[in-house]
Design brief:
11 helices; mainly beta; 31-stranded mixed sheet
Length: 619
């Protein structure tokens, strides 16, 4: 037996009939009857001339009707530019009735055809697009989710942030040529303006519909932009331009400094060395990744992958970076730090040159730059995010630290505490390895460094002491220091702990040994017969530090021919040293000077003078 719907009752037929009549009435209703009342209402409310050539409404029996207007003209605000606020041959606005009822209007789609729009926002919040309450300076209530521009020019100005941009949309060349492979980019947008006094401009091809907020609907984008000397190229897709929910694009960017991008990114960026990078950016609402990063900064190359996860409102950065060759100053500039250039006088700081002038005393010279930089750490930045970053540099260079060779570090930042573990630095043929911890939750910052020195070649570390006469040996050591401060200089000035170094074997220039032993006869003989290397039986030095001041607990250099003992102070607060070295030749000569060598002055440029044996450095 076939199934049959029950016949509607009399009341149901009446209701259905009324709905049909209402629908026909709405469909046949001429909305232009409301055109003049609407013009008058808006003109009186805004104190400006408003003209509408044609008015229509498409209800489509939904909660998002569309209002169509033609030949629209709206005069600008008296305080704004002389040009009209809006002129459009056609404009369509699709909005949510629910959002209007809740007094949070949402325009889901705005279509402009042959239009010019001038939008200005004063520093005090006054906006020229507010027609009903033109003097309202409160926060914005209307949200625009997407825009479809056709032969349209829009100018947008924000006086509070010194931002002024003009964008013009037109059919793209590819669309005009009707090339099948280019139909995804039917619209061309050319823009130019200024942000914070920096001019910028761009030319992109994109889709017909541009999304701005919370739509999740992506559109293609391909083109380039420039700001000052910074250049960027992009090719891919993006959704919700103001707060991107989706990005899948290849990006190439180059410029003189990352700081030039500060105005275009939330948060500050460091004043870096000149850079050029390319990467593939993918982003969802919670995660952003920079895949296959490849580029240069300064004279350094850098490759790897970076990801940023935003869960619970707190970003977490993960990165694996590699470099075949890098300059320490380039890497430091990525984080806003700037290392001092190598002092021109560094080559003259050799012990033999100073010792040769010991009896006469060195001439006065200007102090070099500080050994420990005064770049201020921002502890709040450490608390702003979490991170896990590994960096591997095969060849590391530095003008100020020529004995650097390589770097491997894993940095973990969690809840304001930064741990470099492990930290491995190739130095002078050896390795400095250990752990460095920085606690940004404390004010001032606190730091703890535990480092081991393994097989560091002393000759490379101090520089060749004399051409043709080597002094070499594997240096071992350990540093355990704690300090507090917002700069490296402050941390070192407050450092407490210990430092000890030892060399159990190796060689030293016989001539240098004679100079340290103040053996004049031996010096003359070696200058005539030539220098050679002699063995080092034992060498060690250890210091106990308290508030940046280190008191020696042992200083010893024992060679085949001389035993030299010492004591003194290393002050990290003013970066000075004051140490006495007393040599004891194992075979004293007739011209031996029974005196003590005093090493004092700036750590980077100490003076070597002679002192009486009983004289001790200030303690």
């Amino acid at each position: 037996m076939p199934f049959r719907l029950p016949k509607p009752g009399r009341k149901t037929r009446v209701v259905l009939g009324l709905l049909v009549v209402l629908g026909l009435a709405v469909a046949a209703f001429d909305w232009n009857w409301l055109r003049h009342p609407l013009e008058n209402f808006l003109s009186e409310a805004s104190h400006r001339e408003v003209k509408i050539g044609h008015l229509g409404v498409d209800l489509a029996f939904s909660l998002e009707p569309t209002v169509h207007v033609q030949d629209l003209y709206i005069e600008n605000a008296p305080w704004a530019d002389k040009r009209p606020f809006a002129v459009a041959r056609e404009a369509s606005i699709t909005f949510s009735l629910k959002s209007v009822w809740e007094k949070r209007p949402v325009i889901s789609r705005l279509v402009l055809v042959d239009a010019e729009l001038d939008m200005e926002r004063q520093a005090d919040g006054l906006r020229n697009w507010r027609l009903r309450n033109p003097e309202d300076r409160g926060p914005g209530r209307v949200k625009l989710l997407s825009l479809e521009p056709h032969r349209t020019t829009i100018r947008f100005v924000r006086r509070d942030i010194d931002f002024d941009v003009t964008a013009a949309a037109s059919p793209s060349q590819s669309a005009a040529d009707v090339k099948a492979e280019d139909t995804a980019h039917p619209t061309r947008i050319q823009f130019k303006g200024e942000f914070g006094g920096t001019p910028f401009a761009g030319d992109v091809e994109t889709g017909q519909l541009l999304t701005f907020l919370t739509t999740g609907q992506s559109f293609p984008i391909r083109g380039r932009a420039s700001a000052g000397k910074t250049r960027a190229d992009v090719d891919g897709i993006i959704a919700d331009l103001f707060y991107p929910s989706i990005i899948d694009a290849k990006v190439h960017i180059a410029g003189p400094s990352l700081s030039d991008l500060r105005g275009f990114f939330r948060g500050s960026l460091p004043a870096s060395r000149p850079y050029e990078f390319e990467t593939h950016i993918t982003q969802t609402e919670a995660d952003t990744s920079f895949g296959k990063v490849r580029g240069t900064i300064g004279r350094s190359d850098l490759t790897g992958d970076i990801s940023i996860a935003r869960h619970n409102g707190r970003p977490t950065i993960r990165a694996t970076l590699r470099s075949k060759s890098a300059d320490l100053a380039d890497l430091a500039s990525l984080f806003g730090a700037h290392l001092p250039a190598a002092a021109a006088t560094a080559r003259s700081d050799r012990a033999n040159g100073q010792l040769e002038k010991a009896t006469a005393g060195p001439p006065d010279r200007a102090l070099p730059k500080r050994l420990f930089p005064n770049h201020v750490f921002n502890g709040e930045r450490l608390k702003a995010l979490d991170a896990h970053v590994s960096l591997d540099v095969k060849t590391l260079k530095s003008a100020g630290f020529p004995t650097l060779e390589s770097l491997h570090v894993v940095a973990d930042l969690s809840d304001g505490i930064l741990a470099l573990n492990p930290l491995k630095v190739g130095v002078a043929g050896g390795l400095v390895a250990g752990v460095v911890t920085l606690d940004g939750k404390q004010k001032p910052l606190s730091a703890n460094a535990k480092l081991d020195f393994k097989n560091v070649e002393l000759e490379q570390l101090l520089g060749r002491l004399r051409k043709g006469a080597k002094s070499a040996g594997p240096l071992q050591g350990h540093i355990d220091l704690k300090g507090r401060g917002d700069t490296v200089a402050a941390l070192m000035a407050s450092a407490s702990g210990s430092a000890e170094f030892a060399m159990q074997s190796g060689g030293i220039s016989n001539l240098l040994d004679a100079k340290i032993g103040l053996n004049g006869g031996k010096i003359l003989r070696l200058m005539l017969t030539g220098d050679r290397a002699i063995g080092i039986n034992n060498a060690n030095a250890s210091f106990d530090f308290k508030k940046g001041r280190g008191q020696s607990t042992a200083i010893l250099l024992d060679t085949d021919q001389t035993r030299t003992e010492g004591s003194g102070i290393v002050d990290l607060r003013d970066e000075t040293v004051d140490v006495l070295l007393t040599p004891h030749p194992k075979k004293p000569g007739l011209l031996s000077l029974h005196r003590t060598i005093r090493v004092h002055g700036p750590i980077r440029q100490p003076r070597f003078t002679l002192a009486e044996k009983e004289k001790e450095p200030n303690s």
